[in-house]
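Worked problem 6 (solution included).
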Amino acid sequence: MKINIKHINILQFTFIAIIFNLLVSINFFIKNQFFVGNSTNLTLFFAVIPFFAIVLVPALCYKQSISVYDDFLPLSTTKKIIQSFFTNLLKFTVLILFLIPNCLVVNFFGNIDFGKVFTSLFCLIFYGASLISLCIFINQLIKNKITAFIVSALSIGLFSVIHMVGLYVQLPKSISAILNNLSFAWHFDQASKGIFNTKDIFWLAGFSVLFILLTIFVTEKQKGRKLSKNKLITRSFSLIVTILFMLNSTRYNFRIDFSKNKTFSLSSYSKEFLESISFPVNISYYCSNSLSSLYPQITEISDYLSMYSNQNKNINYIKKDPDSNENAKKTLDTYGIFSQQMKTQKNNTTQYIDVYSAIIIEYNGNTQVIPFIMSASTLEFDLTSKIKTLITNKQRIVNIIVGNGMSLSSDYDFLVPWLNNQGFVCNEIHIENPNFANELKNTTGPLFVIGDSQIKIAQAIEIENYILTKNQNALFNISPYSSNISDDWNITQNQNTNIVEMIENWGVIFSQNIVADISSAQITMYSQQSEDNQFASGNSQTQILNYPLWVSLLPQENATLGATMFWPVELSILAENVKPFFVSSPMGYTYQTDRNSPHKLIESNPFVLQTYDIKSKEKSTKTIGAQIKGKISGLFNNFEAENANIIVIPDQYFVNSLMNGYIGGEYGDYRNYELTTNILYNLNNESELSQIKSKLQVDESLFKISTTEEFLHYLKISNLILFVVMPCSILIIGIVLWILKKKKLTSFLLQLQ
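Solution. The predicted structure is:
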């Protein structure tokens, strides 16, 4: 090994390292527009490396002129080849490790998952080992250096895209499995999510061993050496064992979840719940073979279902292919599960194939279904919540009261489908219904009250009575102010504030201040302005503004992904059993409402607010959400409740479809809905399910940057590190090593003299 390392062309390797490091950074940070994006997910950062490896690995393995003297070295063929392999693997590993500082740059803007970084790097090193063994084999097989380089590059390129053949050509299942295993993308899928899976590592390791053995065999054949019968049997046996090991590597499915939130591991709650199941539960996964051969995520689903079912012998898991099993297809039709269309290419034409990926859970004659699934990330929550519903046979009800004159079906039209999809049965209770009191008396489950400007005293009495005597848990999205959200956004005082007064009786006071924050939502606005910044006609402009009155919550205990609040009211806490639930950033400030201007309590025009100088504003963390837990007494009713759990969000537009549309961007922003779901699970006394769901809510936003000045500051630092510090550091290290090598060589020559 020492001899091979000494023969490394350090200056050539340094040049390769600088170019590789720059290309990976340019691709992720510039080509993929990280700095104008909204995700710290590093999957794309690592996923491009196999494509650069098409040239990189053949370059690392390129035959040096000094290699002609290899035959004079007093080493066996096997040792020479193994040393060559590990020398090139060392070079590849160094290149991969040089990427770590580039990854850390992302941490300036948001949090990165170090578990995912570790598994990605680990998998890449094993992938590099497999490619290096292939290149060494090709170099030995083809004596011409240029030809060997080209063949190596073409072979690696083929392995990079070979899994896509199934998109264009229909192949037998066995052939598809082999092609998928030859593809790095197939093995990298789980590693990119923070999962260490032995079946991927074993396959890549087996691939490396296979081509090292083949290289040894070819080398000895080229030198005209005849193997003894025993050696021939040993070599042949080694090849066969390696091939069988690779083909059976999928059976060695040992998984470790290194992801930060342990997204793909079972929580202690799920384990305890599954261990308590004493009657048979059947889980059937109906998956089209054509789908499982195209996407590695399908294998991940199947692996997860196997792991899940192994927690209890009463849970039976079976996988069925509806494409080849007519009875399976009929079963899906019975449950109203329909196929989904996937686009493929065949004979230069675009075709659509019908595929299934559905789960049916059966218990005691009852069923729950997951009609279509393409990722294992939500499986723990989906399976545990649905099995729990089957076993307990209880519906998860939430009673929704819209009290601000808006409509659940039009103004909050996304809310009910969302909650239904999360397992809730939504029961809307209309305040204008003369039978309002009886509807409340005949229902169960927590209340969800949105706005209170239209809630009269009679309805407020019934709402309070329900909380005090029947269900002590409730969520209130209310405010003493309203905004004209479909027009000029002017903020006005509500005439009715009965629910606000009821909440204030419990120790949560709605102040006269509207909270603003430097950490705020970005919105695209269209204006007609003159050059002196006065509004005029004929000069249309588009601007992207930070709107300080739409507060962007930073990730915190009760909002792990953050959220957006629209014109939130600052809350004051006056009771011991009340604590803050949401808070602004430390750069929060307020605008006091002007009661002398009832039609416009504060300035809410985004363009005008941009002209305000807020340097003189006192900045501090503001309470914009509260939780009341424990004993409460009635304002309108002479009752008390001992174990109330009340969440107050001073924003009636928190789950309004129009408002969330403004902040949704290209892909939509569903954090407010996710947060609402978690709150309702807690209010339904299912905090464990809420915790499982929270595992999925990894904040990959660039939340650490809240101002333009801060962004520009870290942008300069990032570019300096990526495109100056890292290349220069690699260059300096290379030059130092080259000088040391030169000195050692000079010293050696002097000794010879």
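Discussion: The longest strand covers residues 535-553.
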